[in-house]
Amino acid sequence: MIWDIAVLVARELALFAAVGFLVGGIDDLAVDFAWMARAIRRALSGRRGDGNLGSLETPPHHGRFAVFVPAWREADVIGAMLDHSARQFAGQDYRILVACYPNDPATVDAAKRAAASAANIHVVICDRGIM
Description:
By secondary structure, the protein is an alpha/beta fold. The chain has 3 helices and 3 strands, in the order H-E-H-E-H-E. The protein has helices at 2-45, 78-88, 105-116; strands at 65-70, 94-100, 121-125. Strands 1-2-3 form a 3-stranded parallel β-sheet, covered by helices on one side. Helix 3 links the parallel strand 2 and strand 3. The longest helix has 44 residues, at 2-45. It starts with a helix and ends in a 6-residue tail after the last strand. 10% of the residues are buried.
């Protein structure tokens, strides 16, 4: 009796899983068919995709941009990261804003040391949301 119930439950669960796999597979198959249709259409039209990002032009930078860096317990790495970022952005109109917490003095000190060497790096001490 108990064995028959267990077999019935197992069959129902297997049927449920099979239907789930079928529904999940149908949407994957639809994506595959859409990709194949696009590939065939491109092949028949003679168009080729470049596929090479190196051939794209570098977009012009319009105006100032900002990078926001939340920092919590980052004293060991924040200085090197900010120095590297300043070197990478050299000659561009940027501002790096480093958000630190007042109860993390090691990170605040490391960020302030890095900010002292670059005019575009600003340390912001958050007075709310202290962790």
